[in-house]
Amino acid sequence: MKKLIIIIGSFALIGVGFVWFIGDRDRGMWLMNSAIGAASNTQATSDISFGDQPWQKLDIYPQNSTAPVVVFIHGGSWRHGRKDQYFFAADSFHRLGYTVVLPDYVKYPDERASFPSFVEDGAQAIAWVKENISEYKGDPYNIFVAGHSAGAHTALMLASDAQYLNAVGLSEKDLRAVAGIAGPYSFVPDWHVTKKVFGPPARYPLMDVFNYVDGSEPPTLLLHSKADKQVGQYNQDQLAELMKNAGVDVQTVLYDEISHIDILLKLHPWFADQIHVSKDIDRFFKARIKKPN
To answer: Which string of DSSP letters, residue by residue, matches 213-236?
Structure first.
């Protein structure tokens, strides 16, 4: 009976959380994660520093034995979100056998949240993972990176512009594969936040992933939806074409009727039906795992 009450309560919270996700992002995500957490065995080691700045912290969700690693970079239009709000994403990949890392990064309106500071945060987080993840049941030779929306932009910048990983002693070869979920890889900022984060206009080409594709990128999976009203499908189509022409191992998944937020929620099996985003990513990643010598 107690288990039944927990299950019923969890699904009730999910319903409330889903509604509040639309109108009150922070509270809705808290409710959703609380519900999923009540029914999950996934546990975190939290607030580990990967740099000197106060926001440079990450959470790790280890497996019981050494496992491939997914570093998940959350979105939020470069101003929203915290790593603890993305437990549902960590739980999704943890269920599939990965040790999961959720890093934070600097965000607007902090005056230091100007491009490429958040990409540099991502590089520092990956460098920390490479050096330390074996202590948390992660395989440093099988590091995968996934990101949604603004987080997908960061993930693909790290994969395409070598300077960021090079600056921390790594290269694209240290990433087994990358997955970009509904990422805005090439756009002209037209909102006060993105203008501030990426401006002045003379600097806009520096944040355009299309400008860096040269064939050295790790295997890349690009996921998008035809129904996404926030990020245009051209981001997936044109980046995939550039990568194919450069000889990159790139694949695409294009869904039909899910929104920019739905594609994120469908990472988790509680929201998945015929569309299960984390399983699509898992198939791509698992096929590219580096086997021990």
So the answer is: --S-PPPEEEEEETT-SSS-THHH
- Tokens representing residue 182 in the block: 């509904």
Q: Does 137 lie in the same domain as 10?
A: no
Give the residue among 197, 204, 215, 107 at the shortest CA–CA distance from 159. 215
Backbone dihedral angles phi then psi of residue 113, each to the nearest 5 degrees: -90, 55
CB atoms within 10 A of CB 48: 17
Domain extent for 33: 1-39
Quote the tokens at residue 273: 């039906």
112-168: pLDDT as tens digits: 999 999 999 999 999 999 999 999 999 999 999 999 999 999 999 999 999 999 999
For residue 273, the model assigns a pLDDT of 86
Same-domain check for residues 173 and 66: yes
Count: domains in the chain: 2
CA-CA distances (angstroms) from residue 61 to 104, 151, 228?
15, 19, 30
Full-model pTM: 0.93
With residue 152 as reference, give the H or E element that holds it.
helix 150-160
Q: Do residues 23 and 148 both lie within one domain?
A: no
Within a domain: residue 278? yes
Q: Which residues contact 273 (CB under 8 A, 6 or more apart)?
A: none
| Residue 292 belongs to some domain of the structure | no
In the block, tokens 């949240």 appear at 113
DSSP state of 102: E
Amino acid identity at 215: G
Question: How many other C-beta atoms can be found within 10 angstroms of the C-beta atom of residue 222?
Answer: 24
Within-domain flag for 291: no
**Same domain membership, residue 52 and residue 14:** no
